[in-house]
Design brief:
Elements (H helix, E strand, L loop, with lengths): L1 E4 L1 H5 L10 E5 L3 H6 L2 E9 L4 E5 L1 H6 L9 H10 L9 E4 L2 E4 H7 L2 H11 L1 H11 L23 H12 L7 H11 E4 L4 E11 L2 E12 L2 E12 L8 H11 L8
Parallel strand pairs: 2-4
Antiparallel strand pairs: 1-2, 3-4, 3-10, 5-6, 7-8, 8-9, 9-10
Helix pairs in contact: 4-6, 4-9
Length: 259
């Protein structure tokens, strides 16, 4: 079942002032979540047409979650801006070895970004959270854990707005900083499409909570998406966020170069 919402109502809730002609509520996506024994929300923004497609609209606009590794977008931007990160090839400690910033970003490695955030410092990071109006803007715990322990939370709506601003280099960072982070988000690139994303997971109230946020480009046309999904810790599917996103996008006709 699909319903259409009035533009004036919807435009008042989208982060960073996103506007739309209409919003489609797609209840059919519940079937995909059910396949993975999960619940959650998904939203897709067609930038050219200004159209949002949303599943579980109330969760999308009203519910907040720990950003987990999606916060690495902010950590990387601030790290580059402050000189703590030189570029995506810079090596940083990870347990007994060292990996590049790119490898840490794409693998959800925790320790490298704990090191980066500690080097940035709590006061500097707080200033950036305030400047960006990022989520709840709160750092009430340690600088090396606040993005996992729900000291800081963010809504799916806000995540989508952030990704849109990043793509168009409209965040209050140098263009170079934003270009590096966008390059780190690119995961698939071929003649038909480009898929860029960051995925994240954490645990809360005996549930796995996962994010997948990013954008897909076909025929020089960009679409932004956000998925927030939760499942019981003993469910059979691990790292379900990316498979759910891929299945939803495929059902909408992506990955064939025809959008």
């Amino acid at each position: 079942m699909k319903l259409f919402w009035n533009t004036m109502f919807i435009s008042s809730v989208f982060f960073f002032g996103c506007t739309s002609n209409n919003v489609t509520i797609d209840d059919n996506l519940q079937q995909v979540f059910n396949q993975y024994h999960a619940k959650g929300t998904f939203a897709l923004y067609d930038n050219a047409a200004g159209i949002f497609t949303v599943h579980n609209f109330n969760t999308y606009k009203d519910s907040s979650f720990a950003p987990a590794a999606t916060f690495n977008i902010i950590a990387a931007l601030v790290g580059i801006e402050t000189g703590r990160i030189i570029n995506e090839k810079m090596l940083i400690p990870n347990q007994s070895a060292a990996i590049t910033v790119l490898e840490a970003f794409q693998s959800q490695s925790i320790q490298p970004f704990q090191t980066i955030n500690a080097a940035i410092g709590k006061d500097t990071m707080q200033q950036w959270l305030d400047s960006l109006a990022y989520g709840s803007k709160k750092i009430t715990t340690a600088v090396d854990s606040f993005w996992f322990d729900r000291s800081l939370t963010i809504k799916p709506d806000e995540q989508l707005g952030l990704i849109k601003k990043l793509y168009f280099s409209q965040l209050p960072f140098q263009k170079r900083s934003q270009d590096i982070v966008k390059k780190m988000m690119l995961r698939e690139s071929n003649a038909a499409y480009k898929l860029s994303y960051i995925t994240a997971s954490t645990e809360h109230n005996l549930q796995n909570e996962e994010w997948n946020i990013g954008f897909v480009e076909e025929n020089q046309h960009v679409y932004f998406f956000v998925l927030q999904a939760a499942s019981a810790k003993n469910t059979p599917n691990n790292s379900l966020a990316l498979p759910i996103v891929q299945q939803i996008l495929k059902s909408y006709g992506f990955f064939e170069g025809k959008k």
